[in-house]
Structures
1.
Amino acid sequence: MPASTAVSVGAIDLKSPLICGSGEHLMYAQGIRHALAAGAAAVVSKSTNESEAARRQLDRTDYVLLDSEWRSVPWDFSPPADASLLCRSGLAQQPFDEWLAMLAGLDRGAKTHDAYVVASLVLADLDRCVEMARAVEQAGLRILELNIGAPHGNEAAPGAIVLERDSLRVRAIVERVRAAVRLPLWIKLTGQSEDVAALALAAKEAGADAVTVMGRFIVVTSAVLTGGFDVITRMNDDFSDYLARKRLSARDLIGRAADQISTYAQQESRPEYWRQFVVPAALT
Ligand SMILES: Cc1cc2nc3c(=O)[nH]c(=O)nc-3n(C[C@H](O)[C@H](O)[C@H](O)COP(=O)(O)O)c2cc1C
């Protein structure tokens, strides 16, 4: 029996933890269909909001891949393992109604892959965001992700993209959206804040079903954007192999790392141990 890769996010059962993060490659139906066909359990659409300035920001982006020697790497969808993506981005190019109709159709189709297409909004004006969230629900989409932590929020035109780092405001935003819609609500937060756990708790207490904490450091947007949709299939295969090798299911892994965090007081005392990690010249 192959190991089970199934997990749950709130009340949503996913066939695996592989959720494709939002990005340019998921702006149009073709990209989303490729990601689903490659085996993603959920595909988060390219985000939108009501701001024309946020949409036009995509006209002024640039993208570069640098290797560990800071050399620019060709953009050929086969990057070396040490490549890092540096870029800017803007929002989906379609008008909202077109974007929504496309996603509703794709999410209906995703059911046949036992998968989800997630509508993604980026906060600008809260009243408009609430209206858009209602429209997403009415269109029949099964999950809404709301990004209130986009890293380029501070660089965007005023009012185009909100980057929220204050837990009281996170709570107020999530409460408003939660009161307006009943569908599963995932809140995407910045990972670059002094107290990410407080932001996550505020979102949870205000009614979020899940939070996504983004950095720019681990895979499933940059890897697929730069490496193509085969990356999804490879990730799924690697993950299944790993679970089989370890005789674990995906659910067995949840919380393992967190449960093993120990305090200084709990760690074994090893005087002088640190010396092994210092260049000998510094100790003689
Ligand atoms: C080019 C690019 C465009 C992105 N666009 C969006 C977006 O429209 N909405 C959003 O919520 N996140 C967006 N993100 C953030 C990603 O979904 C993801 O959270 C982030 O890149 C971290 O994951 P990664 O390290 O796998 O890339 C974008 C990221 C990149 C690199």
2.
Amino acid sequence: MNRECWATSVAICLKVIRCHCCGRSLALILWFVSIAVTPAATASTADQADSLQLLGREIAPGTRSKFPFIPDRSFEASYLNMPVFVARGLTRGPTLCLTAGVHGDELNGVEVARRAFAQIDPQKLRGTLIVLPAINAEGVRVGNRYLSDRRDLNRAFPGRSGGSVASLIAHAIFTNVLIHCDALLDLHTASNQRANLPQIRADLSDPAIRELAIHFGIGIIVGGSGPDGSLRREAVRAGIPAIIYEAGEPLRFQEDEIERGVQGVENVMAYLDMIEQAEREIPNARIYERSRWVRAGFRNGGFFFPTAQLGDIVGVGDSLGKIVDPLTDKTFEVVSPIAGEVIGMAVSKPVLSGFALFHLAWHDSD
Ligand SMILES: [Zn+2]
């Protein structure tokens, strides 16, 4: 299969999946098919990209641009003052969207998005890369997971034009940017005072999403569709294959987690035939359909000292750590109720009853 046909077949694959969810994709399928049957003599002309119209800007083929997303100058619209990065390839291809900083304190993803965009040469790119590296821009600036009014932006999608600021931001992103996306990678870390093993989260029941997850190449995939109102779940509902890359802790940059994320974005772009990539083996992924948190037991609060680490494979009854009550010096053992891999955990700190300590994942047949 030559490059043009391969690129076209990938696009069709994505659109066929989307057509189960929304009628408008059908026309796009026909559009891509029409490219596939274009005679070779005119294929090069048909493959030339035209300019992209986005947020009132025109991005010419073979160029890249960074600009602010500011719909107007009102007080509330100022919360939409987020950066937008766009690279438009010379030739047609899929549009991949990268989003980060939906939770403003999750900095690894913000830097993954920046680096992934910085290394793109639009002259060699097929298709378009759209990056929203700091959706909750105010949160990124001040280290706040939430918006200024304490709302979680990642529960507000797809949003609506007449709601809270979270809803306004979500609606603006959905209606102005996500309509262009053929696939979405949303970048996160664990929440405050916890750390995540680098992993992909994906709805494994959807073949297009499953392929995206595998080709990211991180080696660990945790199944699930995510909570209502999250960007990933609502994008999938709108017919856009979407996955999450989760890695590390909030509030700081972690080189290993960032590098693995940048490599994963590159892997996905190569899989979508947007860029050339040296031959690289995608590792067999450990795919986990199930996960659960192990929590501090009732009245077992105190100082938490973990012994298990991220990536450990544990069995039923294995000790994961201990909690010491500093007033009685009584020690509570934290024991694994299941066999699985430690994919997330709390840092060593004082904890109360019910605090989520270890996130364990396992395969259905385990
Ligand atoms: Zn997050």
